[in-house]
Specification:
The chain contains 21 helices and 12 strands. With 666 residues, the protein is of the alpha/beta class. The chain binds 2-acetamido-2-deoxy-beta-D-glucopyranose (2 copies). GO terms for molecular function: transferase activity.
């Protein structure tokens, strides 16, 4: 109970088992001196007296300063949680629950607790805001709350992402916030969005000698998302990125609170001008100066240009020693720490890209926040201005999506394959030619290339017990994966042979409309050069989303892993075990002496797994309809704007929300 207080003041503790695990070291720490004292007869009385005194003191502190005590407990919990590893679960024993069952029930419990604990009134929402962040909500909070309520918005307390995105800018004066915004918006890949007299417009002023690049649609989409409430916002401005990728990577030195620059001049002096300076170098500059990537940068260079690599070596995934069935992620890989695990950077096209990036703290609004970047998240404009390729149930006549897509088959008619189609995007090719490392290329290669290894697969037997069988990866990849590229882009630097070479080395298939995916029960989603805007449509479908990403988006506080979607690692090493858990394994793959029967759509090898998979597919679809409607994104953006207005005007007026106070009419 102790450590769950922060997250569930009015409801059951969340992640029960976690709490137990979290608490045990503390209990142990307390028990050691206690045991020592009590076991020595002479000190027993003194020890008991001391204990009583301590208990009394703790109780007194709790009564006298309940808020502070709770805050202290919260901090201890945060600290402890930060040290919990994301990935590894306890080793698997045959009698135990499958780790995925546990992840699913933990997720379900957390999600239900989150839904239950939301504030029910404005006063509760204000109190919850104060409790979480230690300061008052911004001016206009009452109108925002009313807007959220009127539109059936459910997660009124879940905006931790906004607070953390804005935290670095809270150190700046209002004047500095304004001058950095104006200056940032004039850079080549940035656009401005200005609000004046209750009207918002996108602008493309450019610095002297510069040429505007990037997509102004992103700023226009942001303007569109303001329309429902812009008349209630004060005059102010935003710098909206014209790129899908994050642009703000202040160095570790300048991000330190004690070393924060109070005043910066022209943003032009802090933005890279060339596109061949890869993100990896920007990223390493954000690491602690003592981290290996900064101490010996030469040791962490890009991998050598190599011809196509072998697919993931599953012979490494052995049952001896390490347990292969514990490597399921709890959530996304957005918190992967590449400063301390530098080898992992090879696997992400993100780092092989270059575009204009700031090395100081400039406030820039954009859709997908890359690891350690300081961009401020807004909903992707693709979610607001619908495009056929990213929108579920897109109707060309109506020009937008619908709740039902006539092309989306019923569950029973879907096949048990894992589907992915897409273009060869994955990195910006700086340095060029490292395609084989990008996530999309590795997946297509895994699906298409001969792989004579085998891997341990955990699957249900007829009696519902778990059994482990080594299964041929060639059988797995051809049965489980329906994967291919549909378009070669940015492929000229491919060696050997440029675009033709890439098309020869990887599996290319015909381009298909988005809805073609829905014939599969499992829809894979991978990062390209930036975040994948397709997830929303895939969630809305009647299939289940399996997603691998290192980006954060605006909805991260709302989407529950293992309830609404299945998180996947960027190595894909657990991919076939995810498949085996949910789809089951056909008998002839377990026992090669049996005749192989060709799979057909709707065939179910494991009814329990199938039901679990359907529950995720249904929950994701329900989530999209209940929590990711356009109006839910407007609720997010509205609250973000109030926070931004407070920073913008903090020098001039009191921008905190004061309950019961009349808003002036301006
Ligand atoms: C403060 O920032 C300056 C300029 O970037 C840097 O040279 C210096 O090392 C930083 N100091 C600390 C203590 O981080
Ligand atoms: C920041 O970027 C500017 C412009 O590219 C560059 O001149 C400057 O050296 C960079 N500063 C640091 C600390 O990397």
């Amino acid at each position: 109970m102790l450590f769950s207080r922060r997250y569930s003041p009015r409801s059951e503790p969340l992640l029960l088992t976690d709490n137990r695990r979290r608490r045990s070291p503390f209990i142990l720490l307390n028990l050691i001196p206690l045991y020592w004292l009590l076991s020595s007869r002479r000190s027993r009385r003194a020890a008991l007296n001391l204990l009583c005194l301590l208990a009394l003191l703790a109780f007194g502190a709790w009564r006298a300063f309940p808020g502070e005590t709770r805050e202290w407990l919260d901090r201890v919990e945060e600290e402890y949680k930060a040290r919990l590893p994301n990935v590894h679960l306890p080793a698997f024993s045959r009698n135990a629950k499958h780790p995925i069952e546990k992840l699913m029930s933990d997720g379900q419990r957390a999600w239900e607790a989150k839904l239950r604990r939301q504030s029910k009134t404005l006063d509760e929402a204000v109190a919850e805001y104060n409790r979480r962040y230690g300061f008052a909500p911004p001016k206009g909070f009452d109108k925002w709350y009313e807007f959220a309520l009127r539109n059936g918005f459910q997660l009124v307390d879940e905006f931790d992402g906004i607070t953390s995105d804005l935290a670095p800018f809270r150190r700046l004066s209002g004047q500095e916030v304004q001058s950095r915004t104006r200056s940032a918006a004039r850079q080549e890949t940035m656009f401005s969005v200005s609000i004046a007299d209750g009207l918002a417009v996108a602008g493309k002023e450019v610095r002297a000698g510069g040429v505007k690049k990037g997509d102004m649609g992103r700023a226009r989409g942001f303007v569109q998302s303001l329309q429902a409430f812009v008349h209630d916002l004060p005059d102010m401005m935003f710098a909206v990125s014209g790129l899908a990728e994050s642009s703000v990577y202040p160095t570790w030195e300048v991000s330190q609170p004690h070393n924060f620059s109070a005043q910066l001049g022209d943003a032009q002096d802090f933005i890279s001008k060339i596109n061949d300076f890869p993100v990896w170098y920007k990223y390493t500059n954000t690491c602690h100066p003592a981290d290996p990537v900064r101490q010996t940068p030469d040791a962490y260079q890009f991998p050598l240009l190599s011809p196509i690599l072998p697919p993931t070596n599953f012979d490494d995934v052995s049952t001896e020693g390490a347990n292969p069935f514990t490597r399921f992620l709890r959530g996304s890989e957005a918190d992967l720490d590449f400063c301390n695990q530098p080898d992992k950077f090879y696997e992400h096209g993100h780092f092989y890209s270059g575009w204009p990036m700031f090395n100081e703290t400039f406030p820039v609004f954009g859709p997908g926040r890359g690891p350690r970047s300081m961009d401020i998240r807004i909903p992707s404009y693709y979610y607001i201005v619908p495009l056929p390729k990213y929108t579920y149930g897109y109707d060309p006549e109506l020009g937008h999506g619908q709740d039902d897509d006539p092309h989306d088959p019923e569950w029973e008619d879907k096949s048990g394959t894992m589907f992915w189609r897409g273009a060869t995007t994955g990195g910006g090719s700086s340095p060029a030619g490292r395609y084989a490392y990008y996530a999309r290329h590795r997946l297509v290669q895994l699906a298409g290339q001969d792989n004579p290894s085998s891997m341990p697969i955990l699957h249900r037997t007829r009696t519902s017990a778990w059994e482990e069988t080594r299964i041929d990866v060639n059988a797995l990849r051809t049965t489980a994966l329906d994967v291919g590229f549909t378009k070669a882009v940015q492929c000229a630097p491919y060696r050997p042979g440029g675009c033709d070479g890439m098309m020869r080395d990887y599996r290319f298939v015909d381009k298909v409309p988005l809805y073609e995916a829905y014939k599969s029960k499992i829809l894979l989603d991978l990062d390209g050069m930036g975040y994948s805007a397709r997830s929303m449509a895939l969630l809305a479908s009647k299939s289940a989303l399996v997603k691998s990403t290192i980006y954060q988006e605006f909805f991260d506080d709302w989407l529950q892993p293992w309830v609404h979607y299945i998180p996947l690692s960027s190595t894909f090493e657990e991919l076939f075990n995810i498949w085996a858990f949910f789809v089951g394994v056909p008998a002839h793959m377990v026992d090669p002496t049996l005749p192989a029967a060709p799979a057909h759509a709707g065939e179910v090898y494991d009814p329990k797994g199938d039901a679990a998979l359907k529950s995720i597919a249904d929950a994701g679809r329900e989530w999209k309809r209940a929590h990711a409607r356009i109006v839910d994104m407007e609720v997010y953006t509205y609250r973000l704007c109030l926070e931004w207005a407070r920073l913008w005007y903090q020098d001039e007026r009191d921008m905190d929300y004061v309950p019961g106070q009349f808003e002036d009419a301006d």
